[in-house]
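Subject: Interface between my chains keeps coming out wrong

I've been trying for a while to get a sensible model of this assembly. When I model each chain on its own everything looks fine, but I need the whole thing in one frame so I can look at the contacts. Pasting all components below, labels as-is. Any help appreciated, I'm running out of ideas.
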Amino acid sequence: MTGYQHSSRILVALDCIIFGFDGEALKLLLIKRNFDPEFGKWSLMGGFLNADEDLHDAATRILFTLTGLQNNYLEQLQTFGAVKRDPVERTISVVYYSLVNIDDQDPLALKTHNASWIDLSNKPRLIFDHDQMVEAALRQLRYKAALYPIGFELLPEKFTVPQLQKLYEAIYNVKLDRRNFSRKIMATELLMGTGEKDLTSVTKKGQLFKLNKEKYQDYLNGYQSFLPEFTELSLS
Amino acid sequence: MTGYQHSSRILVALDCIIFGFDGEALKLLLIKRNFDPEFGKWSLMGGFLNADEDLHDAATRILFTLTGLQNNYLEQLQTFGAVKRDPVERTISVVYYSLVNIDDQDPLALKTHNASWIDLSNKPRLIFDHDQMVEAALRQLRYKAALYPIGFELLPEKFTVPQLQKLYEAIYNVKLDRRNFSRKIMATELLMGTGEKDLTSVTKKGQLFKLNKEKYQDYLNGYQSFLPEFTELSLS
DNA sequence: CCAAAAGTGTTACATATACACCCATGC
DNA sequence: GCATGGGTGTATATGTAACACTTTTGG
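Reply #2:
Try treating it as a single job with all components included. I did that and got this:
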């Protein structure tokens, strides 16, 4: 037997929600399409699954093509499969989301694909069901960032506590108390001081920290939860 | 244009993890395969996506075929897409999990498909990557049941608080304090007394409750979290 | 000297946990 | 009477939330 006899083969697409953070707002990397279909409209970065390619590898490839980045945080989100979601041909789309350091990408690749970083609050209407995809990704990011310290994936290697706080404020769209936040983050032992100070800030007083990779792995492996109180915020 | 020119069409399967609860243990509805491939081995219930069928509809159809049930809790989990996951032909599988009341199903449909309810703790080795699928489903169930009161989907319409407690003990594999559990559940206002008592229990003292459907919807819509302290348990 | 950013300390409140007692039923 | 299962109450600990003060730097 060389294959299943019944049933139809279907086109499998992948779409990628790419989150970034510029120090103030949460951003999305979006494409102003310079190709058909839906030429000229905004969409997520996407592509098709090849027959000889693992699903996750395909997502990695698509992310690499657009950003020049590999080894980023990349997680499968959900698969969208309404019959008419793509008017050209019946296509199901496996959606991934990724967290990247906005400073690390390849500007040429972005230019080639006509991609730009857009504030989440200014997101244009996207094609097909891409708006729903973004909505689902944001929900997942909020949930995940409450239980696991994945927010660091959006920051440069060295960062200050107030920068980290701004990131969480952007993710959950809330204002946080500086003192409580600092105390809780320090209690996680996830940060290692570098001795350096952040000279770009106004007062040059911010201490730069690095992530403690070992502790980080412990948290990712789930021996303990990260910021349980944020789970409530994931529900909104 | 009638379709995308490039890229290959791929077979899309669906597999379904069906959870039940018999009052003591969490159970899975599994198939002892009376068909090829992997005749005689255990697997999840599955099927293929038709070209003219929404993905979620296909999952509903497969669940219905096996259990005779519709309108159950059914949620997409994840898509498995390793190239060699199915040795017969390259197939990606979109996995759903479902919560059913174990008393409600159609015994004939079960018999036809050679299906039986198996304690999660006695799960046999399953074909392909189905073991991983079950593992992921259990993790998702634990997380979800901590934030949303979906556990009720596994119980009959009327149930006692101790029964509900046993369910949560089975899901999280822990022992809970009777008094604290009762107080917390009552505080949610999710339960409505029926006035009846559970005459099957030894002391006939257990009060039977029904779910307050409106409150239930509120929780599902996420205006408040359900049992935040359980999120910690989801991580193990 | 003042404004803005960053670092640290204290208190009150809510929530989770641990534990003790009483009641009803069947045997 | 007593074992079992089911219902209710209270003290403690832990963690979250609310709030005040000090220091440094640039203008």
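Reply #3:
Confirming on my end. Chain A has a mean pLDDT of 94.
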